[in-house]
Amino acid sequence: MRLLAHGSANYAPVASNHAEPGRALNRQVELVAQ
After folding, report:
1. Which positions fall inside the OmpA-like domain (predicted)?
2. Which terminus of the chain has fewer CB atoms gathered within 10 Å of its CB, N or C?
3. pLDDT per residue over 1-34, tens digit each?
């Protein structure tokens, strides 16, 4: 099994960073098993 790391950071946020709920969503980590 491999784990690959890919950072998107400011380039593709999941939600708006104007409020705490959006910032919390943007801090998520997704793991994909390949």
Report:
1. 1-34
2. N
3. 787 777 776 788 889 999 999 999 888 887 777 7
Specify the pLDDT at position 16: 92
Q: Token pair of 13, please? A: 């946020």
Report the number of distinct structural domains present in the chain.
1
- In whole angstroms, what is the distance from residue 8 CA to residue 12 CA? 6
Q: What local confidence, expressed as pLDDT, does residue 19 receive?
A: 95
CB burial string 3-34: b at 16+ within 10 A, e below:
eeeeeeeeeeeeeeeeeeeeeeebeeeeeeee
